[in-house]
Amino acid sequence: MELCSINGLKGTITVPGDKSISHRSIMFGSIAKGITEVENFLKGADCRATIQCFRTLGIEIEESKSSVLIHGKGLHGLMPPTHILDVGNSGTTTRLLSGILAGQPFDSKLSGDASLNARPMKRIIEPLTQMGANISSILRNDCAPLYITPGNLHGIHYNSPVASAQVKSCILLAGLYADSETSVTEPSLSRNHTELMLKEFGADIRSTHALSSTQATASILPCTELYGQHILVPGDISSAAYFIAAGLLVPDSEILIQNVGINPTRAGLLKVCEDMGGDITLLNERTQAGEPIADILVRTSTLHSTTIEGDIIPALIDEIPVIAVMAAAAEGTTIIRDAAELKVKESDRIETVTDNLLSMGCNVTATEDGMIIRGGCPLKGAVIHTLFDHRIAMAFSIAALIADGNTKILDSKCIDISYPEFYDTFEKLL
Ligand SMILES: O=C(O)C1=C[C@@H](OP(=O)(O)O)[C@@H](O)[C@H](O)C1
Ligand SMILES: C=C(OP(=O)(O)O)C(=O)O
């Protein structure tokens, strides 16, 4: 994809359904009894991988233009897979599905693409093994492909070294099949969609937030049955993030993004935009199945630098590439720290972001757990090496809109992972 600078993005748009909630709707719907109907499901490649995995596990899933119907077979209704489960590029599918598979009375294997098979899985192998699961890395490198065989699961209390919703959700899902309570404490609260949605499906799940620290604990009791639900998936704030950044950065813009999920465990970007002087207004705030939603009005703003660190990091982890682009255009030096998790995403996002910003003429330094971005230098068009990472392709498409000259985004097709209609949404604002 080739892009150049523009002016005046104007209009009202919606963004596709939330990726995290879409994955969970298929998974929980499949192990619930009865039909789960999902509206505004994200038809990106990652969530399609989740659908395919559950079809392979014997679940009938019907797709229409407006919704997805899951014919759930109950907690013990999955069938042994006849072939290896293909998790594609999706960390969420891999880690959450492993938690469910650990509780099944049959063997399974799961594997993904080269990027997925290089991501760390010890973070789930360790706690699942403590619970009595039999899960191993087939190549003995603590990565997928993973092999899971039946084990008798018991409840544990797990102190997670990372604030990761994938790790937390994996353990809680295995906890559905354990013989006693399972709980997970994380150093700071990660996205809580599993806790909110499993409760709607009938699970006995609780969350507590320590008053004296940022630590958060979620616990679940073994369950006899979950029940099918009707789910309306809110727009994905991680996808809205690109249009928020575009609205702030592109001169003479005003964009209204309707129906966006603003769950506080996801909405760190809004706080950062506010700290940077961004003109953002939340309209029509409401709650749907425990998930807060709003329309977001964005207008062109003069941005200044900020420091992003500590317990806000999990609430904006996927938005850091586009935040870095905003920081490059802002006056002053922005510091991002406590974000070492960026190194184990679809690419090493500390490296991919800093390398591409450098090639656009920005003065940026990578650090062990983040980056230092000295903003205010004019960006120039460049060839962007996405390394097939969808967030890099989208973040640098925004950088292209304010750069001098043409920018070429290599392998931009990877955007299909989370936002197949990304460039079509842009067309609506021209
Ligand atoms: O649970 C989820 O749906 C996700 C959790 C986050 O990963 P971690 O749990 O690895 O931080 C996030 O980066 C990913 O895009 C989706
Ligand atoms: C990290 C991401 O997803 P996952 O971990 O599910 O691959 C992402 O979408 O940015």
TrEMBL record:
Keywords (A to Z) from UniProt: Amino-acid biosynthesis, Aromatic amino acid biosynthesis, Cytoplasm, Transferase
Reactions accelerated catalytically: 3-phosphoshikimate + phosphoenolpyruvate = 5-O-(1-carboxyvinyl)-3-phosphoshikimate + phosphate
A GO cellular-component term linked to this record: cytoplasm
Pathway: Metabolic intermediate biosynthesis; chorismate biosynthesis; chorismate from D-erythrose 4-phosphate and phosphoenolpyruvate: step 6/7
Localization per record: Cytoplasm
UniProt keyword Calcium, yes or no: no
Source taxonomy: Bacteria, Bacillati, Bacillota, Clostridia, Lachnospirales
Superkingdom, taxonomy of origin: Bacteria
Residue sites binding phosphoenolpyruvate per the record: K19, G91, R119, Q166, R349, R391
CDD domains: EPSP_synthase (cd01556)
HAMAP family in the record: EPSP_synth
Cited function: Catalyzes the transfer of the enolpyruvyl moiety of phosphoenolpyruvate (PEP) to the 5-hydroxyl of shikimate-3-phosphate (S3P) to produce enolpyruvyl shikimate-3-phosphate and inorganic phosphate.
All copies of domain Enolpyruvate transferase, residue ranges: 7-425
Amino-acid biosynthesis listed as a keyword: yes
Entry similarity comment: Belongs to the EPSP synthase family.
UniProt-annotated catalytic positions: D318
Pfam families cross-referenced by the UniProt entry: EPSP_synthase
Binding site residues for 3-phosphoshikimate: K19, S20, R24, S164, Q166, D318, K345
Gene name of the record: aroA
Protein name: 3-phosphoshikimate 1-carboxyvinyltransferase
Species this chain originates from: Mediterraneibacter hominis
Quaternary structure (record): Monomer.
PROSITE patterns: EPSP_SYNTHASE_1 (PS00104), EPSP_SYNTHASE_2 (PS00885)
Main location: cytoplasm
GO biological process per UniProt: amino acid biosynthetic process; aromatic amino acid family biosynthetic process; chorismate biosynthetic process
Entry EC number(s): 2.5.1.19
GO terms assigned for molecular function: 3-phosphoshikimate 1-carboxyvinyltransferase activity
